[in-house]
Amino acid sequence: MAKSLSEMSLEELWQLFPIILKEHNPEYKNWYREEKAGLTEALPAPYIKRINHIGSTAVPGLLAKPTVDILLEISRKAELAKVEAELKDAGWTLMHRNEEDQELNLVFNKGYTPQGFADRVFHLHLRYPGDWEELYFRDYLIAHPEIAEKYGELKQKLEKEYKHNRDGYTEAKTEFIKKHTAEAKKEFQEKYLPEEI
Questions:
Q1: How far apart are CA 177 and CA 181, in angstroms?
Q2: pLDDT digit string, tens, across residues 55-72
Q3: Is the distance from CB of 78 to CB of 128 less than 8 angstroms?
């Protein structure tokens, strides 16, 4: 009998879910909209502060892992156990939990199966409201297609080296992302500073 995902080691998971880059799919935005509608149905309206499509699939023309990343910011007054239960009922699986320094950072997924990736794959990043760097980096790549192209080239190079090492792949992109996020924050000053922190 095949192991369930929760029984697999990190190395086994990396083998089953390798880094795969694909040309941009214009349908990503529709996948995002459908999931956003599902989230607004699943959770009480006062809990939701902002929902955004982030990551490479949010940037037209950019080479990307075919995984739609969604940033869901919830009120600090939201009942976290209720949010988790509602997301689970809506088909989301908790993948990662980090609640250091009273900050919330939960990552849920959809589309991971014991046979590999489903046709549609999603990561949901659940956080409290914040001035999140992912929003600035996304907007910077959209505003500067030449930088997006360089980012795509970097990812293509790293895909070969880190095909079965997701952490290594993410780490190797960090310097590029930090550099351009700093530029983005100058260009789009406090654009995403929330009313409620």
A1: 6
A2: 999 999 999 999 999 999
A3: no
Q: For residues 116 and 168, give the distance between their C-alpha atoms in angstroms, rounded to a whole number.
A: 20
Strand ranges (E), 41-103:
48-54, 67-74, 93-98
Tell me the average pLDDT across 77-93.
95
Residues 6+ apart with CB under 8 A from 175: none
> Which helix or strand (DSSP H or E) is residue 116 part of?
strand 116-127
| Other CB atoms within 10 A of residue 158 CB | 20
Query: 72: left (phi > 0), else alpha (psi -120 to 50), else beta?
Result: beta
Q: Count how many residues are written for the chain.
A: 197
Query: In this predicted model, what pLDDT tens digit does every residue of 159-171 receive, in sequence order?
Result: 999 999 989 999 9
pTM, full prediction: 0.92
Q: Please check whether residue 48 is in contact with residue 72, taking contact to mean a CB–CB distance below 8 angstroms.
A: yes
The sheet carrying 48-54 orders its strands as 48-54, 67-74, 116-127, 105-113, 93-98
Which residues fall within 8 angstroms of residue 74, CB to CB, at 6 or more apart? 43, 47, 48, 49, 83, 104, 126, 127, 128
CB-side neighbour CA atoms (13 Å) of 149 = 3
C-alpha pair distances (Å), 173 with each of 14, 73, 132, 133, 162? 18, 24, 17, 14, 11
CB distance 124 to 70 below 8 Å:
yes
Token pair, residue 125, equals: 């990043």
Residue whose structure tokens are 């509608």? 37
